[in-house]
From TrEMBL:
Domain DNA methylase adenine-specific, first and last residues per copy: 162-264
Pfam families, per the entry: N6_Mtase
MF (Gene Ontology): DNA binding; N-methyltransferase activity
Listed name of the protein: DNA methylase adenine-specific domain-containing protein
Gene3D superfamilies named among the record's database cross-references: Vaccinia Virus protein VP39
The organism's place on the tree of life at top rank: Bacteria
Length: 294
């Protein structure tokens, strides 16, 4: 079945009727402000990949267990270096289950490899605590996860102090997503492919997920192709793919699509090569070690 081009959906979205945004979006914006504020208060480091990685870690953790309250309590009670140890273990398990995810997410995980005296451990822990207090797990492990993009607003909030016009990004707001849902209820079947060559953190993927689920289908049975010049946005899209249940056929590309018109093929080839390289690594912790070499 021919894929659904997200550029066409963006063009057609204005023809649909949008419903009021669900309050999960407002919650996500509040969380972004709280996390960014906590990070900047802790020392002013302009490294958005660290707090973004912290939030991604907590979100991934919540998806691994049934009792998210236990996860939250364990993280809250951990020491700063203990939290980093927990994070390493969580990603080890996550990558053992979803090895392809490591290829896109690794830009968010450098703080897991830093020496103890180099990593801003207290700042990391304070940021994690702020994310938990702001209700991050409510937005990533319940049905509300389909109502918002938690990571998109956070990328913007974290970059607000240093972003330039060159790398400023526009994330798809909820009204456009709702309009997309209204206009995209065409025939769908397992195997449908979705493509967005300006994917950002995946806002339009979320809208497509809502379409797929509304038709009684599973997003994991579809294929998802996304490209962006920003490696942090792509990393966030990969984590969002986990949150939204996009499944194993997610192909993300970092680069300029104008100079690489066959980027989707390149994304598939890169992922196949990566998976072949880690095929013999039967434990997620070894995948973490492998990421240090990239």
């Amino acid at each position: 079945m021919e894929g659904l081009d997200m550029n066409e959906c963006k063009h057609r979205a204005g023809q649909g009727s949008a419903s009021n945004p669900i309050n999960a979006e407002a919650h996500a914006l509040t969380l972004a402000v709280e996390v960014a504020s906590a990070w900047h208060r802790g020392g002013g480091s302009d490294r958005p990949e660290i707090p973004l990685g912290i939030v991604a870690t907590i979100a991934a953790a919540g998806l691994l267990v049934d009792r998210t309250a236990d996860v939250a309590e364990g993280m809250k009670s951990a020491s700063p270096d203990g939290f980093v140890d927990i994070a390493r273990s969580l990603w080890a398990v996550t990558f053992s289950r979803h090895p392809a995810l490591a290829m896109s997410v690794y830009p968010l995980l450098g703080w897991l490899f830093a020496d103890a005296h180099e990593a801003p451990l207290k700042q990391i822990k304070a940021t994690a605590d702020a994310a938990l207090r702001a209700g991050l797990l409510e937005l990533t492990v319940t049905e509300r996860r389909f109502d918002c993009d938690v990571l998109g607003p956070l990328v913007g909030a974290l970059r607000s102090r240093t972003a330039t016009k060159v790398n400023a990004q526009m994330y798809t707001p909820g009204d456009i997503a709702c309009a997309l849902t209204a206009v995209a209820l065409d025939d769908l079947e397992p195997g449908q492919s979705f493509c967005d060559d300006a994917v950002g953190t995946g806002g339009l993927f979320r809208a497509a997920v809502c379409v797929v689920r509304s038709r009684g289908l599973d997003p994991a049975d579809m294929s998802w192709f996304g490209a962006d010049v920003d490696d942090l946005a792509i990393a966030a899209a990969a984590v969002n793919g986990l949150i939204w249940g996009l499944g194993p056929r997610v192909y993300l590309y970092v680069g300029d699509i104008l100079t690489h018109p066959r980027w989707a093929d390149e994304a598939c080839a890169r992922q196949a090569t990566f998976l072949e390289e880690v095929k013999s690594l039967n434990k997620g912790i070894k995948v973490l070690d492998f990421l240090k070499t990239l």
